[in-house]
Structure formats: C-alpha cells, structure tokens
Design goal:
Helix 2 links the parallel strand 1 and strand 2. Helices cover 39% and strands 9% of the residues. The chain is extended and about 75 Å long. The chain is mostly helical. Strands 1-2-3 form a three-stranded mixed sheet. It is built from seven helices and five strands.
Length: 266
C-alpha cells in the first residue's frame, strides 16, 4: 500500500516514515529522489529505522546518508540476483528441478502436520502412474485429431482433476501439453561435457534461458510425438476472434483521409 503512504505525505499527514531497514522502503535511487523532492514541499522530515538509524531529509548530510543506504541496497540486491541466477543456471545444467507448481504426472510436495516436506527430492520428479496414463492417452487422442476442447470436456465429465485438483480449463489444458518437460531429451548438438548428460537417457527436457537440458525426471513422450501434437494444435487453432463473423473490411481503413482531415471508411 505504498501509494496510500505517498498520498498521505502529499496531504501533509506524515512527518516521519518508520521502517525495519532502508531496503524495506527503497532499492532504487530514483524512487528515493522522488521522496526527497516531496520532503521539500510537505511536512515530511525524515526516515527512521527500528534499530535507531535516522535519515533527516531536511539536511544535506541526512539526504547524503539516505542515498548511500539505498545505493548499498541496490548493490546487495544486484549481488543477490546474480547469485540466484548463477545457482539456477548450475541447477539447470544438471537438469535439476528449478521450483514452481506441481507438474501433472509427477509428485507434489507431501507435508506432515508441522509443515515439514516428507518427499524432498521426489517433487516434480517421481511419477504418478494414474496421471501418466491419462497424459499419454490425451497425447494419443490429440495426435489422432481430437480437439483439445473435446478431450478437456471429457476429462471434466469423468471427474479427472487438473494438477491443482480443480476442473480443467482451456488455457491450462493446452499449456500443459505444449510444455517440453514431458519430452524425452535428445542429446544432438548438445555439449558433451554437460553434467545433465549423466541423467537417465529417458530423462525429460528442462528448458532454461532458451537452452535445453536432459532432466533428472523421466520424460513421457518422444520428440516425434511432441512435434506431431504441436502440428495438430496448429491445424485446429482458432483465430483470435474465435470464429466471430465481422462485416466487410477494407485494406486502407484508417489510412486514407479526406481533404477535410477526417478518416475515410469503405
């Protein structure tokens, strides 16, 4: 609710902002500069942290200290982001699970009453046989020419839940089957020293930053099946207007103008 705070400052209702630490308020210098400008024209006098550090925005020294604190926060944020990206890249090169929602056909997190995860290392890696069977059956039906909407309605009528335990919707159904994580990885044109090649030869495909890696989890369909399925999706894809019939259109609509300056229409 930062916008509410700014509005209160502009109304002259705020003299001091109290935060646990400066990074909880700002991590970008341009945002702090806007606050410093507000301090010139409002009752705002400074920023204080709960550990007793104060930044008096009515003095050059206080402004200098506040800018220094945000600069330090920016540096630490950039370092943290770099570390996280480096860690994710390393995990991707090993084909390891990078986090996110439960993938259909694979185990989700199982927790005890205290919230402790009981199946660490199996999340989105170990197979759920019943869901694997349903997934492969749907792939076969799509390749055979059935529309995604027909299959989705059939699953809902049979009471087969989606990954989040609810009914299937058109968007999440198609997105699931377009994911490459289910495709058995093929090592053609792939670096031979990549750690992911030590994973099982039937491992799925992990896509990270545009690169593909052999995953630790098992793949469910071949590359050929995936390409056939994508081809079927393209064949049966609806136009953006979902088949709505519009009036006659003209190629120069909105581009041709009358001498008076008005747009001309067909």
């Amino acid at each position: 609710e930062y916008d509410l705070l700014v509005a209160a400052i502009e109304r002259g209702e705020v003299e001091i902002i109290v935060v646990t630490e400066m990074t909880r308020l700002y991590r970008r210098i341009e945002e702090l500069l806007e606050l410093i400008k507000m301090a010139d024209r409002t009752k705002l006098r400074g920023i204080f942290t709960t550990d007793g550090i104060g930044y008096d925005l009515s003095t050059p020294e206080g402004i200098h200290a506040a800018i220094g604190a945000v600069n330090n926060a920016m540096l630490e944020s950039a370092r943290l982001s770099k570390r996280q990206k480096r860690k994710k890249n390393a995990r991707a090169e090993q084909g390891r699970y990078l986090g996110g929602y439960r993938a259909y056909g694979y185990e989700g997190a199982l927790k005890d009453k205290a919230g402790t995860v009981l199946n660490r290392g199996r999340i989105n890696v170990a197979l759920v046989d019943r869901e694997v069977e349903i997934y492969r059956d749907c792939v076969r039906r799509i390749i055979a020419g059935e529309r995604a909407m027909t299959i989705m309605r059939d699953l809902n009528q049979r009471g087969v839940p989606s990954p989040d335990g609810k009914q299937w919707a058109a968007g999440n159904f198609k997105r699931l089957f377009m994911k490459k994580r289910y495709v058995v990885f093929e090592a053609e044109d792939h670096p031979t020293d990549c750690a992911c090649l030590q994973n099982p030869p039937t491992g799925g495909t992990l896509v990270h930053c545009g690169a593909e890696h052999r995953a630790v989890w098992p793949g469910l369909i071949s590359r050929e099946e995936y390409e056939l399925m994508m081809s079927r999706f393209r064949e049966t894809a609806q136009n953006w207007n979902h088949g709505l019939v519009h009036g006659r259109t003209y190629m120069l609509s909105g581009l041709v103008f009358c001498a008076c300056g008005s747009v001309m229409y067909g």
